[in-house]
Amino acid sequence: MQGAMMHRPLRIIDILRHAAEAHGDEGIVSARVEGDLHRQSYAQTLARAAGLAHALTALGMRTGDRVATLAWNGHRHVEMYYAISGMGAVCHTINPRLSREQLLYIIHHAGDRLLFLDLTFIPLIESLLSNLPEGLRFVILTDRAHMPETTLDALCYEELLSAQPGDFPWPDLPEDTASGLCYTSGTTGNPKGALYSHRSTVLHALQVPICQTSSFRAGRRILPVVPLFHVNAWGLPYTAPLAGMTLVMPGPHLDGASLFRLMDGEDVYSAWGVPTVWAGLLAEIEAQGRIPQGFGDLLVGGSAAPRVMIDAYEARGVNVAQAWGMTEMSPIGTHGVLPPRYEGARAEDLIAAKCCAGRRLFGVEFKIVDDTGRRLPHDGQAVGELYVRGNTVISGYFENPEATHAAIDAEGWFGTGDVASVDAEGRLVIRDRAKDLVKSGGEWISSIDLENAALSHPAIAACAVVAMPHPKWDERPVLVAVAADTARPALEEVQAHMAPHFARWQLPDDLIWVEELPLTATGKISKLTLRERMADYVLPELRGGAA
Ligand code: ADP
User: Fold this and answer.
1) 213, 262, 305, 342: most buried by Cβ count inside 10 Å?
2) Residue 283 and residue 182 share a domain
3) Averaged pLDDT for residues 398-411
């Protein structure tokens, strides 16, 4: 028997319509590329998205067409998210930190017809112009007064909008209609596209706040440092308006001092981003001797949150939660909210609980398997590759059957490439990315665990552990570190500091001091680049020909 309930398709635009009607006091504050601090309500955002949808229609965009964005976090980018998907087209967010080759690859692979770009990225696109698809049109995200001289035959965004009406007959799209396209940052090979739908996006927006309860409360302000140009800023352009929160957008300035100033002036309660960004903010907090006004909640994801970082923020009264996810999952798969029994818990128990990657969101299932694909128990001990399944997980890569075949198993689950365990309480512990694990003498060592221990040494500000080849052991760990100050302790001292947490054979064989660590296009430490830089590296024990 069928239930007798209405069926309305899940549409992204309805999130913004809801915010405009139910949360009239909230909206978007944007530090813009032009240098000003811009404010608009969600009602204004909806009206501007409607104007943009008219403009897109006038420019010939139709259902399923890919419209690309190359922009920082700001209100115009949010308008594009809603207008493009709302009129039935697909919003392809481009990560400007990809290599030139990768940028060209994804623009061609996506079949983009129109590209909206911030002023910052004009030189980049000018330099790629001769290799871009013929017929690709450009819109520059600014007003007439700020339009620069450019070799691009480009339209002006504000001019395009000013002539348009403030409402739009948003079509009743089937909820499985494609809405957004985001490519992985392609650490190996070409980037692969995750093609989100209206349904997956709305479900993700509903799933996250119901679990990650510490970050969401109507009337509060939330800062996505995680970019709109990668994995939908972890869904915040959808979850924030849905939950009635104002988005505070940092634009291009992501250093600690700029973030501190913006958060302090705008009373930001919750801030979301990768650990490298929070290390910068922490340095500014230490310099100023206080946290930004109103700051109470920090969500760290994208890489494991280092224990010392969790500790430092918690000690200053900021609640830290960790989330795990990936581009292929819309992207969040876990939440880091702890049950009430942790209130008043010993600091070390609290921090230990926060060091794991959290529990699964409703709608995301986990499966841990061994090398033969056999399921392993969720007992906190068994470690294997993590597979996921759910309405917010990709069913395959966009127009890429080979990559799809490699990622989806016979039962239809998606292989994350992460090596993990799940404990009896449902907590996920990411031990490593499969390709970052150090395989030594038939055993493996977690680079994340070694990095966490090394980072608790006061002389180390940032570090990465990479596997280096060894003829007998296969691989051995090497610690690459950035000094906090002038002190550069010897390997033995750092080993001694780490020793209580590891077996002797697990400790790094060498310590290399560097000025800075290379970052990926998503702002994480790039072990791939490090390994490339260390292509000629020889372990100390093997130098001089001795094996
Ligand atoms: P990129 O390939 O640019 O890193 P993603 O954002 O899709 O793109 O990265 C997803 C990966 O990031 C995951 O597979 C996992 O390895 C890592 N990751 C994300 N969150 C966490 C976390 N909280 N702890 C450990 N690793 C994480």
Assistant:
1) 305
2) yes
3) 96
